[in-house]
Write a structure and sequence with these properties.
This protein is an alpha/beta fold. It folds into two domains: about 110 residues, Tetrapyrrole methylase, N-terminal domain (Cobalt-precorrin-4 Transmethylase, domain 1, 3-Layer(aba) Sandwich); about 140 residues, Methyltransferase, Cobalt-precorrin-4 Transmethylase, Domain 2 (2-Layer Sandwich). About 35% of the residues lie in helices and about 20% in strands. The chain is elongated and about 60 Å long.
């Protein structure tokens, strides 16, 4: 049996009860933290909370050398841990398909996602989000500008009056996380006066949600990661009110965004 368990968004307490129960029954627990991280905890704290030993896998262990996981899952109960929801990343879907090819039973224990949290914290309606995109560090793609694919996604969504969730780059091995201010500065070159919303430390006891023009967000310090950025499309009047009340959006920044 191979069970994929989502750890939620922030720390060791973010997991569901079903997730805790699955871990307690496991013969082997593995985890990957290269697609995302629980920035509110440590591996040691996670292990202590669940009273288990966790084997942390590198990308190659999951994508290129998964045989160890699958071989064990043929006869034992293996739990595969990830931040957020375990099936958001395509690499985890691939692992599940490999298990199915070997007639290994699989089970999923869902965790909440950054996209759900972004909608919940900002008050932006979840069905008004279009395609999401990821903004990489400039060094990651060999250029000093925002990739065309990112701009195309934002532009396409804005034309359709939809919101864009922008995931911010993570360099797991270097413990480097893009901040909302950096993302705003990068996007500001193309969208200086465009409204955006920074969502920081979703899932924690003190999340930060701030809405303003990108040029203003670029000057702010939002503290510890993880951060997200939302570029809104057209706003329903309730969404506009939510950004003012929940994200301190200046009213003048909302001009032209109402339906």
């Amino acid at each position: 049996m191979l069970t994929f368990v989502g750890l939620g968004l922030y720390d060791e307490r973010s997991i569901t009860v079903s997730g805790r129960e699955a871990i307690a029954k496991a013969d082997r627990v593995v985890a990957e933290f290269y697609t995302s991280r629980l920035t509110g905890t440590t591996l040691e704290a996670l292990q202590a909370y669940h009273d288990i030993s966790i084997e942390v896998l590198e990308r190659a262990d999951v994508e290129q050398r998964p045989e160890s996981i699958l071989d064990t899952a043929l006869t034992e109960r293996v739990v595969f841990l990830t931040a957020g929801d375990p099936m958001i990343s395509t690499t985890h879907v691939d692992l599940r398909l490999r298990a199915a090819e070997r007639d290994i039973d699989t089970h999923i224990v869902h965790g909440t996602t950054a996209q759900a949290a972004a909608s919940s914290l900002t008050g932006l309606q979840n069905y008004r989000f279009g395609k999401a995109t990821t903004l990489p560090f400039p060094s990651a793609h060999g250029g000093d500008t925002v990739p065309t694919s990112v701009l195309d996604t934002i532009d396409d969504n804005r034309e359709r009056e939809l919101h864009t969730l922008v995931y911010l780059d993570i360099k797991a091995q270097r413990e480097e996380f893009m901040r909302a201010s950096t993302a705003s500065e990068l996007l500001c070159e193309q969208y200086e006066d465009v409204l955006a919303v920074a969502v920081c430390r979703a899932g924690s006891d003190d999340p930060v949600v701030a809405a303003d023009q990108l040029s203003e967000l670029a000057t702010r310090a939002f503290g510890a990661p993880l951060h997200l950025l939302v570029v809104p499309g057209t706003l329903h009047h309730m969404e506009a009110d939510a950004l003012v009340e929940l994200a301190d959006a200046p009213r003048n920044c909302l001009d032209g965004y109402s339906e």
